[in-house]
Amino acid sequence: MSDRKLPRLLQTPAVLLLLVWMLVPLGMTLYFSFIRYVLNSLRRPEWTTPSLSNWRGFGNYEFVLKSKDFVLAIQNSLFIVCSILFLTVILGILIAVLINKSFPGQGIVRVLLISPFFVMPAVNAVLWINMILDPVLGLQGIAVAGINDLLEGLRQMPVLGGFFSLWPEFEPISFRATQTSAIAVIMMVTWQWTPFAVLIFMTSLQSEDQQQKEAAVLDGAGTWSQFRFLTLPHLGRPIAIVVMIQAIFHLSLYAEIEIVSRGNGNKNLPYLIGEFANNNIGAASATGIFAVILANIVAIFLLRMVGKTLME
Amino acid sequence: MAIVAQSSKFSIYGRPVLAWGVGLMFFFPIFWMVLTSFKTDADAVKPENLIFFTPTLENYLNMTENYDYWRFARNSVISAVSATIFTLFVSVPAAYAMAFNPTRATKDVLMWMLSTKMLPAAAVLYPMIFLAKGIGLYDTHILVITVLSLINLPIAVWMLFTYFKEIPKDIIEAGKMDGVNTWGEIKEILVPLAWGGIASTALLVFIFCWNEAYWTVRLTTIDAATLSKLIEGNRAPEGLFFGRLSAVSTAAVGPIVVLGWFCQKQLVQGLTFGAVK
Predict the structure, then answer these.
(1) What's the distance, Cα to Cα, between the start and end of chain B in Å?
(2) In CATH, what is the architecture of A66-121+181-311?
(3) Least CB-CB distance to B101: which of A8, A115, A204?
(4) For A294, left (φ over 0), alpha (ψ -120 to 50), or beta?
(5) To probe the interface with B, which of A20, A33, A93, A131 has the most B CB atoms within 10 Å?
(6) pLDDT score recorded for residue B79
């Protein structure tokens, strides 16, 4: 065996495993998406086993495209992912710049900050939606009730009472509702992933060219223009990394959506697939193929953007 | 001058106060969960018992007696540890091949590997269940370990590749001169040199395996169910159950958060994928 053949062969197990992992289920999904295949049917029991004789052509795809949830789910997927990316990058940069210079207890603050990243996503969701955001029993409910009680007390005051009686009662927000559940999901995922962004940006800031900065200060550059023209360009690559890794994880967000609202008006694509898969495997598979296409569009875009900088 | 004086004042007082504020704010939900886990279910929702209460271990005792916590925990340890080891066994040789003997296709192979991570799990879940039940692997450790390894393989190869790339090729070549074969190169030269990188990759893979919920919840029922399944089963939407919930949650995330604290420096280096020096 030649000098380099064996070393090169060493990557084949990894490649083969991933190839099987990708192609087999994907092939089956593709197959199921073209046949009628349901888990339970009293009227048409022959549909409950996958078979070519139940061929439906593009029927499942039409069915999915016509269902009103489909467009909603795509919009929601994109809305949730983009909001999380935007918030984590902005917050990440601000916090990284804040804690990058040394101050008493810097090490402890770092440890406190990174902790949310290690929390299991399912725990994250149950914790936030129940104990923090619940409109009655959670901290939100308790805080709103406290403020209302305080206002009620102030209204009884002799002179100023008239002023406070103009104030409205505060209403706690229910984050399980259709309009607000996406916000809750964005909030909890941002809490979990901002630490990731902060740590990557901090690592990058530590390698910033200090001499260049000092020169800029001598030239009279203010804090803002230092940040704008030196720090921000330096953070270009790390921002690309943060965006790419997070996009990979958040496009398949599921636990949070399910726990917050059971998809009530707040479905994303993975959730919609799960819903179809309760009975209609054909439709679930067709939606799955749409999700693969969407992920590929995002992937091509992201890998183009990041790939070059990663490989140098 | 005014600006300089102001900014230094900020550095002395403003920065520490603000930074501690942000740090405590981010940690607060975890602190709150741990605190609530020592309250009874009734105390946990009373405003007057928010901070002052009589601590109790009732929730933890209840959890180990009625919910069989240790079985789920044991399953989590078994699957996460085995999946991490298996992932490393496959990814270290692969990353070695790509870093020291690259071909023209190496770059594309790496990109393709990462792109398999973007394949939505939900799209292939049903075929997987179908197959798993077909071969009789549903709800077994083998299935969970295989799936966990496969979903983490791309990240592991990437991380190791970026570490290995930093090692000068000459050192590896020198081994060849001494007549060491390929396995020897990996075992005696590469692994000791890249130990830090391999350890942080292992850690990250372990954390991702431990926290994985989508596959582990859906591919198991009882025998191979991990802690994420325990959480799934304990999230009744309403009612007085905050104490119980907090105890289960604390016991599920505690080990990994503490592990993360000790290894945060290495983890951060690994997560930057070599793009940030």
Answers:
(1) 34
(2) Orthogonal Bundle (1.10)
(3) A8
(4) alpha
(5) A131
(6) 94
* Half-sphere exposure of residue B234: CA atoms within 13 angstroms, side-chain side: 29
| B25 and B131 housed in the same domain | no
How far is residue A247's CA from residue A241's CA, in Å, rounded to a whole number?
A: 10
Domain count, chain B: 2
The Cα–Cα gap between A238 and B149 comes to: 27
B25 touches A at CB < 8 Å: no
B137 and B200 in a single domain? The answer is: yes
Is B245's CB within 8 Å of A25's CB? no
* Residue B56 domain flag: no
Would you call B24 an interface residue with chain A, using a CB distance cutoff of 8 Å? yes
Q: Does B96 sit within 8 Å of A10, measured CB to CB?
A: yes
The answer to whether residues B212 and B87 belong to one domain is: yes
Tell me: do B235 and B101 sit in the same domain.
yes
pLDDT, tens digit (0-9, with 9 covering 90-100), for A57-113: 887 888 888 888 888 888 888 899 999 999 999 999 999 999 888 888 888 998 899
Residue B55 in domain: no
d(CA B93, CA A306): 25
Same domain, B202 and B267: yes
B20 touches chain A (CB under 8 A): yes
- What's the confidence (pLDDT) of residue B228? 87
Higher pLDDT among residues B123 and A255, named by residue: A255
Specify whether B9 is located in the same domain as B74. Answer: no
Cα distance from N-terminal residue to C-terminal residue, chain A: 32
Chain A nearest CA to B139, separation (Å): 18
Picking from A3, A137, A270, the nearest residue to B120 by CB comes out as A270
B227 near B252, Cβ under 8 Å? yes
Residues spanned by the domain of B151: 70-271
Q: What is the mean pLDDT of each run of 10 residues along chain B (277 residues)?
A: 53 85 93 90 76 83 83 93 95 89 82 77 79 89 92 90 83 73 77 83 90 87 86 66 87 90 77 62
Q: Closest to B97 (Cβ–Cβ): which among A11, A112, A137?
A: A11
Minimal Cβ distance to A288: which of B122, B131, B253 = B122
Same domain, B24 and B110: no
The pLDDT score that the predictor gives to residue A204 is: 84
Q: Whole-number mean pLDDT of chain B? A: 83
